[in-house]
Design brief:
Layout: E1 3-11, E2 34-39, E3 49-54, H1 57-62, E4 67-71, H2 78-89, H3 94-109, E5 118-119, E6 121-126, E7 129-136, E8 148-150, E9 154-156
Parallel strand pairs: 1-3, 2-7
Antiparallel strand pairs: 1-4, 2-3, 5-8, 6-7, 8-9
Helix pairs in contact: 2-3
């Protein structure tokens, strides 16, 4: 049985933080810096859609219509979805993004009282452009994107 997985790309400009240091460098638009974030909630097994947020208008234009891929499995696993997402957007770093996903899941579910932080993105350079790939982890308290997650299902905006 073949299942279709659709990738929806949405343009999203985040509020600029007061300082562009630490995890906030994700939102810096200086010198063509771009971010592309997978919606964390869309990675559940029964969901056959991925939601991608980016501030890069070229990617938004390229994928203004739903991008569809097929899987021979009833429910595509997280590894398959991340690899297909990276293949659709850019051919690089799937293992690092998969590792980052697992780190976020482990950090959010941890019951540790310590305030250890995990960023929700990875960064790399392509020629003179900086790219941030990561996960959009929704939370209703702050209007800004979350760049850091903590244990006990906490986030920092």
């Amino acid at each position: 049985m073949r299942k279709r997985l659709s990738i929806n790309v949405t343009h999203l400009e985040a509020e600029k933080p007061k300082q562009m240091t630490g995890a906030n460098v994700l939102y810096n638009t200086y010198k063509g810096t771009s971010y592309t974030l997978l919606d964390f909630n869309f990675l559940k097994k029964d969901n056959m859609q991925l939601q991608v947020f980016t501030n890069n208008k070229r990617i938004t234009e390229k994928y203004k219509f739903l991008y569809e891929i097929t899987s021979d499995r009833k429910n595509a696993n997280v590894k398959f979805r991340i690899f297909k997402y990276l293949t659709a957007v850019i051919l690089a770093l799937p293992f690092l993004l998969l590792e980052k996903y697992q780190l976020i899941v482990n950090r959010l579910s941890s019951e540790s009282p310590k305030n250890n932080k995990t960023t929700t993105y990875i960064w790399f350079l392509v020629r003179q452009s900086t790219w941030y790939f990561g996960f959009y982890v929704p939370y209703n308290i702050c209007s800004q994107l979350y760049a850091i997650v903590l244990s006990k299902d906490r986030r920092i905006c």
